[in-house]
Amino acid sequence: MQSAIRREIRQQMRQRRRSLSLEQQQYAAQQLSLQCQQLNELQHAKRVALYLSADGELDTHPLIEYCWQHNIATFLPVIHPFSRGHLLFTRYTPDTDMVYNQYHILEPRLDIRHIIPTKALDIIFTPLVAFDTTGHRLGMGGGYYDRTLTPYHQEDQGPIAIGVAHHCQHVDKLPSEAWDIPMHTIVTPNDIWRW
Fold this sequence. Notes:
By secondary structure, this protein is of the alpha/beta class.
């Protein structure tokens, strides 16, 4: 029952964000970058992981450009080739060779020389499909980010996870599962939510 509700919310939210016009998406991307620039965590970061948007996700390119301009080393997730359901993070620059993964999402071509240990990241900006007023996040359903963030959820060391979403992806209450990792911070173009 709960999985059916989560599936329905995913469909609704994906449709909601895909229905945004190109102008709305571009404006939201710029506003997101401005909101993130206010984050104390980003002002002190040296290494951050972002993602390239797909399927109507909030475009992170302006934020990536900001990081490049401020000498913040930027990394993107790559689906782990041997550890199913896990992510690696690899350096991303304007010259990075890109390929499409199994989900038809662009990611850097895997090169062991550019991989960073996850615990060495300062921030992992995390995509999501929906979030609620208590900081619960609903992802695409593959569990990649939940598995990646689990070791650091209760720790004082390791990367800080910051969720990124359009404001229209907010709902009052999400059905959550034991493996869901709640966010302490979620940034939308309109607000910075903290718990």
